[in-house]
Design a protein that fits this description.
alpha+beta; Ubiquitin-like (UB roll); Creatine Kinase, Chain A, domain 2; 2 domains; eight-stranded mixed sheet; six-stranded mixed sheet; 14 helices; globular; disordered N terminus
Length: 472
């Protein structure tokens, strides 16, 4: 296997040899990582010789990573024909183009990977493979896409160990205890944390644009630069890891749970745009059209709106996700789109060719990066393939709307039902993906209702805090 180096020193397929890069960075351990069904980074640490010797198939892990829930309980009541009945192995096939140093651990590198079966065939539930396939289908139509995440989370003074001892209650958010955003007092208090985070992102080749204090106490937003969809998801996985690791090292805790307190929740907005594959010219902008929206953009919006209800399940994977989707708390509540309107589910910005993009605002901070992008690409592709027209743009505030406006699904089960009924997403993503995902979300609902969750609660419950705060 041969590699070349990009301008930031990271290898891509070509020349020189992988061994040269490993030698040049004095690497002795390689962390191979992937993401199964839930948004958790999983994998193994390999001795360098084991890593290179395992290529191209990569290390084996139990296929049970697709068979248990966030509490470690075997998920029952549904199955996928792609799963071996003997509960055997699957493989994490490394993508050498993603190899990067692990800044806080000299001699370590990390490498993103795809899940395959033992013969090397991609698993249908591998989100990374799914995004790559959808991006390939978009390329077949002559377009490329770029995605940029806005990640929100909350930072607390207590360590994870102390937070656990307190049963995740009575924690102290970093900063002023007031729901005021962009506050420089809070930036000062968060700076020791983000100085380390941003330095590590730079060293890993992850381009970030800005970070700031957000409206809930202890809340922050970190903006990543736009890149191709697979790279965008990879970088988000690594960014979350860095944030968690720095919190551990500094004796603090950080979470991306969508709703931690009764203040504003944590979202994961994604901005995206399309370009002509040959020329690189933006294709969403047309100065002659209404609102500068090209026909391509109109059909893209049409597809996203037609699949919005079904996509919510893929964008909101946990019980806690739906605590965030409440009116007047900065999250969308209805199937709406508009121009520069942050109360709608889609915000469509068309001021100039280079700045024209769609901001998808539904996902919570706990979203699976690959499934999230897959849902967006699938909806957009459906719009292009079927020439779907968007409904009229929403006018005014999109919260507190009367019943004639269609609301987003309000629970993990109603979202799963909407996905089950969505023929367009099934067409784009395949029944294997849709049905297995739905089974896993209904199992999450079952665990909430049978292992201590409070079905009558209107705020985050102890069950949610224990299950999600540290993991997500």
């Amino acid at each position: 296997m041969t590699l070349t180096e990009t301008t930031d020193g990271l290898p891509v397929t070509g020349d020189p040899q992988l061994e040269d890069w490993l030698d040049g960075h004095d690497i002795s351990i390689v962390r191979v990582e992937g993401m199964a069904l839930d948004p958790l980074s999983l994998g193994k640490q390999l001795h360098r010789s084991k890593f290179t010797g395992s290529l191209p198939r990569g290390p084996a892990v139990t296929e049970f990573v697709f068979g248990y829930d966030l509490g470690g309980t075997p998920s029952l009541g549904f199955w996928g024909d792609w799963r071996p009945s003997n509960l055997g192995d699957v493989h994490l096939r490394p993508d050498p183009t993603t190899i990067a140093p692990v800044p806080e651990r000299p001699g370590w590198a990390s490498c993103m990977a795809d899940f395959t079966d033992t013969s090397g065939r991609p698993l249908p539930l591998c989100g990374r493979t799914l995004v790559r396939d959808l991006a390939g289908r978009l390329a077949d139509r002559g377009y490329s896409s770029r995605f940029a995440f806005e990640l929100e989370g909350q930072l607390f003074e207590e360590s994870f160990t102390e937070a656990r001892r307190r049963n995740w209650q009575g924690l102290t958010p970093v900063g002023v205890q007031a729901p005021v955003a962009y506050l420089h007092q809070n930036h000062h208090r968060m700076a020791p944390f983000f100085e380390v985070v941003c330095r590590r992102l730079d060293e890993m080749g992850i381009a970030w644009e800005a970070w700031n204090d957000e409206a809930a106490p202890g809340q922050f937003e970190l903006n990543l630069a736009p890149v191709d969809p697979v790279t965008a998801a990879d970088r988000l996985v690594r960014t979350r890891e860095v944030l968690k690791e720095v919190a551990h090292e500094q004796g603090r805790s950080v979470t991306f749970m969508p709703r931690v307190t009764e203040e504003y929740g944590n979202g994961l907005h994604v901005h995206h745009s399309l370009a002509d594959l040959d020329t690189g010219e933006p294709v969403f902008f047309d100065p002659r059209a209404d609102g500068n929206r090209s026909r391509i953009l109109d059909h893209w919006i049409g597809g996203l709106m037609a699949t919005m209800a079904g996509a919510v399940s893929l964008l909101s994977p946990t019980i806690n996700s739906y605590r965030r989707l409440q009116g007047f708390l900065a999250a969308p509540t209805h199937l709406t789109w508009a121009g520069d309107n942050k109360s709608t589910a889609l915000r469509v910005l068309t001021a100039s060719p280079g700045a024209t993009r769609v901001e998808h605002r539904v996902a919570g901070g706990d979203a699976h990066p690959y499934y999230m992008i897959a849902a967006v690409l699938a909806g957009g592709l459906a719009g292009l393939e079927h020439s779907l027209e968007p409904p009229p743009a929403h006018e005014g505030l999109a919260w507190g709307l009367p019943d004639r406006f269609e609301a987003l699904p309000v629970s993990i089960t109603t979202a799963a039902d909407a996905l089950a009924a969505d023929a367009l997403l099934r067409e784009q993503l395949g029944s294997e993906v849709i049905d297995y995902w739905i089974g896993s979300r209904r199992f999450e609902w079952l665990m909430f209702h049978t292992t201590g969750g409070d079905a009558e609660a209107t705020a985050p419950t102890p069950w949610e805090m224990s299950r999600y705060f540290e993991l997500l």
